[in-house]
Each structure stands twice: as C-alpha cells, then as structure tokens.
Design a protein that fits this description.
Elements: E1 2-6, H1 11-22, E2 26-31, E3 46-48, H2 54-64, E4 68-71, H3 78-83, H4 85-105, E5 110-116, H5 139-156, E6 161-167, E7 169-171, H6 189-197, E8 204-207, E9 219-220, E10 222-224, H7 225-240, E11 246-250, E12 256-257, H8 258-269, E13 275-278, E14 287-288, H9 293-299, H10 308-321
Parallel strand pairs: 1-2, 1-4, 2-3, 4-5, 5-6, 6-11, 7-10, 8-13, 9-14
Antiparallel strand pairs: 9-12
The protein binds uridine-5'-diphosphate (UDP).
Uridine-5'-diphosphate binds at residues 78, 169, 187-189, 192, 205-207, 218, 220, 258, 281, 284.
C-alpha cells in the first residue's frame, strides 16, 4: 500500500517507516528536517517540506497519491509550548488541516493521527480511559485537541476515517534497525538521564520532587517505540477493515516516577551519576498513566517490551553506540 508518513525522519516516524518498509509497503516521507534526521532514513524517498505550506503538501499528495497517511509531523514539546503558545496553537492545527485537505483532494481518506495524553490535562481517574474529560493544561495538548475535534466532525460527515492514537511517553530505541532518539536540544527524561550516565551532561535533573506522588516526582507511562509503531499498523488495518473512527490510548498501564527512571538508567548503564532536584516544569501534570484496555480489545494490540528496564536498556544501547546521535 502507498503510505505517506509525515514527520517520518523524526524519532517515532523513522521507526515507523522502517516497520512499514519491512511489511512491504511503499512509503514516502514528508518532513521539513527541522528536528528529523536524513541519516535516519537511508534510501527512503523523502519530500522536504513544511505542512504549514498548503502548496508543499498538495504537490506531494498529487504526485504520490497515497492510499493512507500516518501523521507524525508536529511540534511536540510541552515546555516549548508553554513558552511559545501561538506557535503550537497555530502551526499544529494548520499543518494538520493542510494535510487533510491535500489528502482528500488526492482521494486519500485514511488517516492515523499522532495525538497525546496531554489532551487529558490533570485526569480525574487514573489509569486514564479514553472517555476521561479532555481539558489540557498546556498549549501542546490544546493544539492536538483542536485537531482531534476537527477529525470528529470530518469523520461524521464522511470526509475521512481516522484513528487518533493518544501517546503516553514514547521511549526506547529500535536496536535491531539502529534507530533512536536524537533531539537537539534534548528535553525528554530518559535520553537526558542517559546523557548524564555517559558523562555528556554533568548531572541528571529532576523537575520537582514535591508532587503528590509516592516519591514526590512525576509519574509517567513509558511505552516502547516499537510497540507504539506496531499499534499504528493495527490502527490502519482497523480503518481499512471498515472500523469506526476512534480515539485510543497508547501506554502500558504502568506508571514510573522520575526517580524510578533514574534508577533504571543506573541499572542499565552500571554508572552512578549526580542527580539534582530543580523546580517544577510548567505544564506537567503529576501523574499520567494509561488504561490501554480499549486499544488491546479493538486492535488486538499486545505490547512486548513493557518493562521499564527493557525500555531503558534499549535506549541505553542506542545512546552508548551513538553518543552524538545521528551526527547530522
Ligand atoms: N523530567 C525531569 N527531568 C528531565 C526531563 C524530564 O524530571 O531532565 C520530567 C518531566 O518533568 C516529566 C517527566 O520527566 O514529569 C517526563 O518528561 P518528558 O519530557 O520525558 O515527557 P513529557 O511527559 O513531557 O511528554
């Protein structure tokens, strides 16, 4: 099948591209390379462009004529969204709406959308189910919710079919295919702590230890990037089989605190390193843990690398082999 992957040069997108190619699909990546890496895509066709340009994405869709799209391209950093809300609120929805228009004009109506648990804000119930209220507490979550709301209306009017996957914390590396997480600057917990273990950073930093959690640090649900990508394949099959347009959580249902993640990096690396407690990072809910029961039931999804040690170890292997990331 011809599948357009926006943001396919990024961390999750590049693992997805490799998986799609290994299953025999024809893939075209659309990426502006602002955060993605050409080196993560050996030999994969790539159109360099930005989704905020309707012209760029229309040209791509008209020449490739995709049958389905997996849409990863977006700004996705909570703290950046707090500092620059307009960038998120404008560019994430505008990019997605341009993409949808270009897809529809080329006759493609099947979309797997990368959403986020940030749409829930501070949940009333944990683990979080998909019917939890959506009241985001940061502009990133708002920007993804705006797109989700548009998708609901468009699906209702038969413009397209979608699965919106609400990611919890994607982590780990595709060790087999040598693909990992390389952001500049790096803001995510696991790679940042690994950089402290590698001596690239002087210390690991905990953003707040006064949250109402067991050890005072934030709790998140870490999901291995390969399990996450496998869910995208199943989500696409769901739409193609005539399944309903739907929102699904992607997490493991296990929460780990920042301190527990730091301990897992110590175990994986065998290195002790300094840890400093800093103030809270704005926009961070204390606890985000998924119920992925619906995803398992609807898609038949069975994540494999569910233990925090497996997730952290794969990240450790990739970072220790690539201390400077993709080097581009
Ligand atoms: N965090 C931390 N130190 C860091 C990076 C992140 O304490 O160097 C915390 C952050 O405040 C959050 C959790 O780790 O509670 C996960 O953050 P990350 O940026 O990895 O993912 P997010 O939950 O923002 O998507």
């Amino acid at each position: 099948m011809r599948i357009l992957v926006t943001g396919g040069a990024g961390y999750i997108g590049s693992v997805m591209v490799r998986m799609l190619l290994s299953r025999g699909h024809e893939v075209l990546v659309f990426d502006d390379l602002s955060r993605g890496h050409r080196n993560a895509l050996p030999d994969t066709p790539l159109d360099v462009g930005n989704l905020t340009s309707l012209e760029d994405i229309t040209k791509t869709c008209q020449s490739f004529m995709p049958e389905a799209c997996m849409h990863f391209a977006a700004h996705s950093l909570v703290d950046e969204s707090v500092r620059d809300p307009l960038k998120y609120i404008r560019e994430n929805p505008v990019g997605s709406l341009n993409l949808i228009r270009a897809l529809c004009e080329s006759g493609c109506r099947n979309l797997v959308f990368s959403s986020t648990c940030a749409v829930y804000g501070i949940p009333e119930k944990v683990p979080i189910t998909e019917d939890e209220k959506t009241t985001p507490i940061n502009p990133y979550g708002v920007s993804k919710l705006l797109v989700e709301n548009a998708l609901v209306e468009l699906a209702k009017r038969d413009v397209l079919k979608f699965v919106s996957l609400r990611y919890f914390n994607a982590a780990g590396a595709d060790v087999e295919n040598d693909l990992g997480e390389d952001h500049n600057p790096e803001t995510h917990l696991i790679p940042r702590v690994i950089k402290a273990a590698l001596g690239i950073e002087p210390e690991a930093v905990i953003y707040g230890d006064d949250y109402p959690t067991k050890d005072g640090t934030c709790i998140r649900d870490y999901i291995h990037v390969s399990d996450l990508c496998e869910a995208h394949i199943l989500a696409l099959e769901h739409i193609l089989k005539g399944g309903d347009s739907i929102f699904l959580n992607l997490g493991n249902g296990n929460g780990f605190s920042v301190r527990e993640v730091i301990d897992a990096v110590r175990r994986a690396s065998g290195v002790d390193f300094p840890v400093r407690v800093d103030r809270r990072r704005e926009g961070d809910p204390p606890i985000l843990v998924a119920s992925a029961q619906k995803t398992r039931t609807v898609l038949g999804w069975k994540p494999i690398l569910t233990h925090i040690d497996q997730i952290v170890e794969s990240a450790w292997i990739w970072h220790s082999r690539h201390p400077h990331g993709y080097g581009d």
